[in-house]
Specification:
The complex is a heterodimer. Chain A is about 75% helix and about 0% strand. Chain A is an all-alpha fold. Chain A has one domain: MetI-like fold (Orthogonal Bundle). In chain A, strands 1-2 form a two-stranded antiparallel sheet. In chain A, a hairpin with a 2-residue loop joins strand 1 and strand 2. By secondary structure, chain B is mainly alpha-helical. Chain B contains 13 helices and no strands. The longest helix of chain B is centred in the C-terminal third of the chain and has 38 residues. The radius of gyration of chain B is 23 Å and the shape is globular. The chains are: A mainly alpha, B mainly alpha. Chains A and B meet through helix 1, helix 3, helix 4, helix 5 and helix 6 of A and helix 1, helix 3, helix 4, helix 5 and helix 9 of B.
Chain lengths: ~280, ~270
């Protein structure tokens, strides 16, 4: 129907652009991970040294493990908040559904930095929460462990990713044919049984998508630890950032980035597979 | 259907949902409240309400320089990513070329990969190409990363589009070029506006990629980031409150665009025999 020229004209510029400004940079990252730094100078000498360092020094495995633990906590907390909220909106909100849905979406548009900063002012030792606790005479000294801890990182990231987790779950719940739920009730199943045996299994693809989002996005975050994490809340991306900054070892930083990239892509791939297996029809 | 069936009462669930809403909104409310607090960002209760922090903010030249920088970068990113995203969406929707599946995944990578990876890759590329870090590198970074958003939104728009009009136009002797400008583009108007608003907001807010590409001139989020390290005053609450207000205005516009789009669809349905 359309001429070949038209199609070539449409596909060529984005192909070239994406090749030059996306594929090439990612390839450079990959290449760097096989290079080395000698006396502060980058040497283009292909070797596996960076990967050997990564796997032989327990420091990196330790930070990666902590990062995974934080990401898993964020995922679990976001699910515990996002799933019931989605369930409530989909099955119990009635006429207020549309308005409430919009209210969950709004924070997605609000700056990451603004929200992170808000938590910083709430959790600080001279922050709003400590002021509140002392005002109520619940404590006399400021509670110091709130800010600059893994807890603060989990709290901030949970706050940011709960709406992200909510969205796919809500979409999945909305797609469940209501007659199925009614049939379950009519056949004598109680609310809990209907939820466990009809609604929950049918919403698993949405749940998986939400969980993958939260986990993958928290895994590579370096801003939350800088903002509210302190030394004990350092994550793997902070190690990368310091290797690219003061520590000046780009190849090692690139090797860690490649690992993060591989973990991310495998998780996305795995979740896509599982979602397909669990989707009905 | 789901709305009208009288749902069973679930008081615990309702309370739980209300608490989740409190959790989602509490930080923003606190932030706004303390932007009027004379005595600083913490403590309870906030007393001595004042507009001084806003006055200080409006007199703060470096914040406004950063705002202008961010606006320039965001406007440029919208133009760049919409243009390339539109072409990419057209290519994915209509053309067949070798490596199409790979291209689709590659374009989406910045959306799924952590910002630090995209940011550092672009930094290495800038160094490799011998480019000095400046607002230009930030703009190239945002524009390229956000092609993902433009492509997704516009591809969805193209898939929903009725092809009969384009075919009619071509059958009636219009050139593909004329058909594109007079039929395809006007039909995509709502997707273009929605994608544009989303890209604008994301670029104004971007920090993970910007972090590594920034030169001497700061964007607004990086200016704020820099100040957070130097000790905080409610002036940052004030600027955050304004950012929040602008975001809300943009959402309302975006929502209007969306619903008007739905309204038009409904009208089409009614007008059809």
């Amino acid at each position: 129907m359309c001429s070949r020229v038209y199609k070539t004209l449409a596909s060529l510029p984005p192909l070239l652009w994406v090749g030059l400004f996306l594929l090439l940079p990612y390839a450079l990252m990959f290449a760097h991970s096989f290079w080395a730094v000698h006396d502060g100078v980058l040497v283009h000498q292909w070797n596996l040294h960076n990967y050997v360092t990564l796997f032989s020094k327990p420091v990196y495995a330790g930070v990666l493990l902590r990062t995974m633990r934080i990401a898993a906590s964020v995922t679990l907390c976001s699910l515990l908040l996002g799933y019931p909220l989605a369930y409530y909106l989909s099955f119990h909100a009635g006429a207020r559904k549309e308005l409430l849905y919009q209210l969950v979406i709004v924070p997605l548009w609000v700056s990451y930095l603004v929200r992170g900063y808000a938590w910083k002012t709430i959790l600080g030792s001279e922050g709003v929460l400590n002021g509140f606790l002392q005002y109520l005479h619940l404590t006399h000294e400021p509670v110091a462990f709130l800010l600059y801890s893994p807890f603060a990182v989990v709290l901030m990231l949970t706050h940011i990713y709960t709406p992200f987790v909510f969205l796919p779950i809500y979409a999945a719940l909305e797609h469940i044919p209501r007659p199925l739920v009614e049939a379950s009730h009519d056949l004598g199943a109680g609310s809990v049984q209907t939820f466990l045996r009809v609604i929950l299994p049918l919403s698993i693809p949405g749940l998986l998508a939400g969980a993958t989002f939260a986990f993958v996005l928290s895994l590579g975050d370096f801003l939350a630890p800088l903002l509210v994490g302190g030394a004990s809340g350092t994550m793997i991306a902070n190690v990368v950032q310091s290797l690219f900054g003061a520590a000046y070892d780009w190849p090692l930083g690139a090797a860690i980035s490649v690992c993060i990239l591989i973990i991310t892509i495998s998780l996305l791939f795995l979740s896509e597979r599982l979602e397909k297996r669990w989707s009905f029809k | 259907m789901s709305g009208q069936a009288p749902s069973r009462r679930a008081p615990f669930l309702t309370i739980y949902a209300a608490l989740v809403f409190v959790f989602i909104y509490l930080p923003v409310v606190v932030l706004i409240l303390y932007s009027f607090n004379r005595d600083g960002v913490g403590g309870f209760p906030p007393r001595h309400l004042t507009l001084d922090w806003y006055r200080q903010l409006f007199a703060d030249a470096s914040i406004w320089d950063a705002v202008v920088n961010s606006l320039i970068v965001a406007a440029g990113s919208v133009a760049l990513s919409l243009t390339l995203g539109l072409l990419a969406a057209l290519a994915l929707d209509r053309a067949t070329f070798p490596g199409k599946a790979l291209f689709r995944r590659l374009v989406l990578l910045p959306l799924i990969l952590p910002g630090i990876i995209t940011g550092l890759s672009l930094l290495m590329f800038a160094v490799f190409a011998g480019a000095r870090l400046s607002l230009l590198t930030v703009f190239l970074g945002h524009g390229t990363a956000l092609i993902s958003v433009a492509t997704t939104e516009l591809f969805a728009g193209l898939q929903k589009m009725d092809r009969a009009q384009e075919e009619a136009s071509l059958d009636l002797g219009a050139t593909p070029w004329q058909t594109f400008w007079r039929i395809t583009l006007p039909n995509l108007k709502l997707s273009l506006i929605a994608a544009g608003l989303l890209i604008f907001t994301l670029s104004m807010d971007e920090i993970a990629v910007t972090f590594f590409l920034i030169g001497r001139d700061n964007t607004l989020p990086l200016e704020i980031w820099g100040r957070l390290r130097r000790g905080i005053t409610p002036e940052i609450n004030a600027v955050s409150t304004l950012i929040f207000a602008v975001s809300v205005v943009l959402i309302v516009i975006w929502y209007r665009v969306r619903t008007r789009g739905l309204g038009a669809d409904a009208q089409d349905l009614l007008e059809r025999p």
